[in-house]
Amino acid sequence: MILLTLSMIAGVITVVWLLVTRMPGSLPAPAAGPRLPADLALPAGETASAVTFGEGWSAVVTRTGRILVYDAKGVVVQDISAPALPAD
Fold first, then answer.
1. DSSP string spanning 3-53?
2. CB atoms within 10 A of CB 42
3. Which of 30, 37, 60, 65 has the fewest Cβ atoms nearer than 10 Å?
4. What would the pLDDT profile of 20-45 be if each residue is shown by its tens digit?
């Protein structure tokens, strides 16, 4: 019985050791997250409330209710009016 217990303990330790040493190298590297264009600037008097990203574009929702869609270079390609957000 003691020999069986010792062999089970050794087996569990071996499995844990193999998982710890082999798994980190087999996991894929995390993908780079979305990035805002370096030249992106909001119009004067606007404050960002939310930001979302797509492939090749970014959208910023402002507190005054504008949705500004920027291309990858930071140029506004669309300006959409939406209802203003309520004050906090």
1. HHHHHHHHHHHHHHHHHHHHHHHHSPPPPPPP---TT--PPTT--EEEEEE
2. 14
3. 30
4. 887 766 667 777 777 777 778 888 98
